[in-house]
Fold this protein.
Amino acid sequence: MDFNVKKIVKDAGAAISRVVQMTEEKLGTSEKTELDAHFENLWERAENTKNWTEKIVRDAEAVLIPNPGNRIEDFIYEKIDKKRPSRLSNLEYLGLDMIEAGNVFGPGTAYGSCLIKVGQWEQKLGQNERDFIGSAAMCFTQPMRKFLDTEIKTILKEKNLLEVKRLDLDACKNRVRKARSMLGQPAKEGISPEEVLEQAERDLRIAQSEFDRQAEITKLLLEGIGSSHAAHLRCLQEFVETQARFYSQCTTIMTDLQRELASSVKPGPVLRLNSEDLEPVVPNNTRVSSPAAFTPVIITSSDDSEYSVL
């Protein structure tokens, strides 16, 4: 129990010393230990990597899952280590409604049959889109978010610890300067200025050693950002390949649909007026069986314009 109390008192004293040191630095009454230029460049690169990776991940997730409510739901499921719910895509919902409408209008009608056929292909597009979302998340957004949640958090933690060690070091330097200025003065509370200076210098050596050690650890982590960039490049290349494959499959699906529709639609009768082809207007409830049902007629007006009905 005594040990815990002493530790609490010591930690509280160190925290107060850091606050005082930080305040004096803000006021410009105390010196601050600066890190070398190489370290500062590494830290700037790490900050840029963190900020831009966060933006890219947010943008990519917005593209893959446009609904913000679904993104929040997926985030919660991920945090509680549960499987994300399986959802139909908007294209699949569109396809289902088209198929249902086609059955209502009648599969035997031209419009109903076409609705059913297009609905089936829209469902294929929707399934293809869902596969793309899963593949893109696995090869791109998930590795990038994992980088933010692991490597970046570790770097930030060690950088904050380095700042604490830096404040302790500068506080020790101030105590040494103060102790040296008191040399030659009478002892206070039975402790001579020489003993105070000796203790302050001992604390300074310890603080300097801890600061140097923490600076080296943080520097090694910052240098690892280069390897992370190489990993992100591979993720980006895989994402582009996945995206290209997705659009290629979509093109194939739509080309097949166009071919199906073109082969199933029969050409109707044509009215030719002054060498221009026009679609004839057929009264409601009038069934047109084929172009052969029309008898060719040529009509000549007073201005010699020809009207030909095929």
